[in-house]
Amino acid sequence: MTDSIRYKVAVVGAAETTNIGKVDGMSSLMLAADAAMNAIRDCGIDKSKIDGVFSTALGGISLVQVAHYLGITPKIVDGTSVGGTSFLLHVRHAAAAVALGYCEYALVLMGESGYTRGDNIGLPDLRTESAPSNSIGAQFEAPYGTFGPTTSFGMGILRYMQEYGLTHEQLAAVPVAQSKWVNGNPRALRPNEVTIEDVLSSRMICYPLHILECCVVTDAGGAIILTTADRAKDFPTKPVYILGTGESVETPLVSQMEDFTSSKAFQVASTKAFDEAQVSRSDIDHMMIYDAFAHLPIYGLEDTGMVGRGEAGAFIAEGHTSPGGKLPLNTNGGGLCYTHSGMYGMYLMQESIRQLRGEAYNQVPDVRVSFCQGVGGMFAAAGSIIWTNEPPH
Amino acid sequence: MTQQQSRPKPIPYPSAETQMFWDKANEDELWIQRCIDCGGKPYFYPRFFCPTCLSTNVEWFKTNGKGKLHTYMINHRPAPGFADEAPYAIAIVELDEGVRMMTNIRGIENLPENLILDMPLEVMFEEIATGRKVPYWKPMAS
C-alpha cells in the first residue's frame, strides 16, 4: 500500500465572501481577499503563519499578485487553471503540499465578479471586438455559433435521453429538487421552490435547456485554510479531514467527448478518490455535484458510481436527493439556485464543509462523510474530494 | 465614442496542422486524417501525429461526406453574427469514418420534431468569407 493523504490533512478555516449574489464595486481579487479574511477570522489563524497560496488566475491576475496583495510570501504556490473545478484540485494539491511539508498552512482562495464584471470597472467596452484566433475551438466549434457554456455544455443531453429514456420532466426535476433545499436562504439568488411546470414553462435558452435548468450568474468568492490533522487540534473550529481526492481532464472541445452520455474525467477522478478514502459509495451521506446545468447531477451520480447507468434521472425525480431522501444532494441549492459566479467549485466545498461542521443553512442530520464532484470547462476537467468530520481512528 | 455594432460571424483561421482541412474545404471536399501504423483508425481534429499511438506516419484522406446526427442543441440566444438564424441547431455529426465534429444543420427547419437522432446527413460547403468555405451538414437526399 502506497503512502496516502488519508486523514493527514484537515480543513480548519472556510468561508465565503461577506456578500454574495450581486456585489457592486468589487473586483474578483477584492472578493477573493474578502473571502480569505473571513476564512482567517473563522479559525483565528495568525495570517503570518500562512505559507502556501493556491488559486487560479482571478480576473487574469497572476498568483504573484494574489499573494503580494494579501501580504503573504509563500513557500509554495499553485495556479492550476482548468475551469470551475480548479479549487478542488487546489485543495488536493494543498493537501499534498501540507503533508509533505512544503508548507504548514495552505490558503485556497477565489473570488469572481461574474455578474457585475467588477474587473472591467474603468475600462472601455470591448465586447464588439473579436480577436482572430486559430485555436481548435475557434476553428471547429465557434463557426457554428457556439457562445459560452449554454450553447455547448448540454450537447449530450438529447443523446442521453435517446440512450437511457430520460424525459424532459425528469431533467426539470433536478432544479425542482434543489429548490427544495434552498428553502428561502437569503444568500441564494433563486431562493424560491419551483415546480416541474415552472421549469418547463420558463424561457428556452438552448433546447433542451430552459432558463431554470441553467445556473444563476453571480458575484461571490470563498477561501479554505488547510493544515495537518495534528495541527488542526489547535484551532477552535471542528476539523474536516480529507479522506480521498482525485482529478482528471478529458477534452477541451465538447464536440470531442468520447461518449456524450458520460464524463471520462468524472470516472477517473472519483475512482481515485474512493480508492484513497477507503469508503464505499454507501458510506456517502451527503453529496455535492457541480451543477452549471441540470444534466450535471445526472451525469455526476452515474459517473461516480453512486447510481447505475441510466438510473439518475428517475433517482432524482423520485425524491431520493431531496430533503428527507437517502442521498442529500446539492443542499445549498447548487449553482442552479444558490450561487454561481462562473467557477462554482469553491461553493461545492464550502457547503460540504458547512454540512460536516453542522452549520449549514439547511442542515442534514448526522452527516459524517461528504463527497464533492466538480467539473471544469464543459466536461473538460474534474476534481473529486471525499471528506469527513470523524477524527482519525 | 465608438459606435456599438454587432460582431460578425467568427471565421476559422487555419493553423499549421489544419491548413489541409481548410484547403480541401475550399474545394468542397471533407478531408480528415488516419494513422498508417496502428490500423488506419481515422481521427479528428487535425494533428501531425496519431493521438492513439503517437506515430507521425499519418495521412490525409477524403471522407465520403456522409454521416449521422449524433446529438444537438437548439440555441435561442444567438452568438454574434447569428441573429438572423436563431433559433439554430448546434449539432454533432458522426461521420461514416467514425469521427465526430460540430456543425449546423442546413436544408431543414431546425425544430426538435425535424431533427431525429441518427438521421442520415451529408456534407455541404458555404463560403462565409472571401476564400473561406466551411463544412455544414444537411439531411441526406433520399
Characteristic terms for this protein:
heterodimer, A: 393 residues, alpha/beta, Peroxisomal Thiolase, Chain A, domain 1, nine-stranded mixed sheet, two-stranded antiparallel ribbon, B: 142 residues, mainly beta, 2 domains, five-stranded antiparallel sheet, three-stranded antiparallel sheet, 1 helix, 8 strands, globular
Task: Walk me through this protein's architecture.
The complex is a heterodimer of chains A (393) and B (142). Chain A has 393 residues and is α/β, with parallel strands linked by helices. In chain A, the strands form two sheets. Chain A has a nine-stranded mixed β-sheet, sandwiched between helices. Chain A has a two-stranded antiparallel ribbon with strand order 5-6. In chain A, 60% of the residues are buried. In chain B, the strands form two sheets. Chain B has a five-stranded antiparallel β-sheet, with no helix packed on it. Chain B has a three-stranded antiparallel β-sheet with strand order 2-1-3. At the A-B interface, helix 4, helix 5 and strand 5 of A face strand 4, strand 5 and strand 6 of B. Strand 5 of chain A pairs antiparallel with strand 4 of chain B, so a sheet runs across the interface.
Largest sheet, strands/sense/barrel of chain A: 9 strands, mixed
Outline type of chain B: globular
End-to-end Cα distance of chain B: 54 Å
Mean pLDDT of chain A: 95
The CATH homologous superfamily of chain A corresponds to Thiolase/Chalcone synthase
Say how many strands of chain B there are: 8
Q: What fold name goes in the CATH topology slot of chain A? A: Peroxisomal Thiolase, Chain A, domain 1
Determine the oligomeric state from the structure: heterodimer
Give the terminus-to-terminus CA distance of chain A.
Answer: 18 Å
The percentage of residues in β strands of chain A lies in 15-25%
The portion of residues forming beta strands of chain B comes to 35-45%
Q: Please count the beta strands of chain A (DSSP E, at least 2 residues each).
A: 11
Provide the succession of SSEs of chain B.
HEEEEEEEE
* Model regions low in confidence, pLDDT < 50 over at least 5 residues of chain A: none
| Helix/strand/pairing category of chain A | alpha/beta
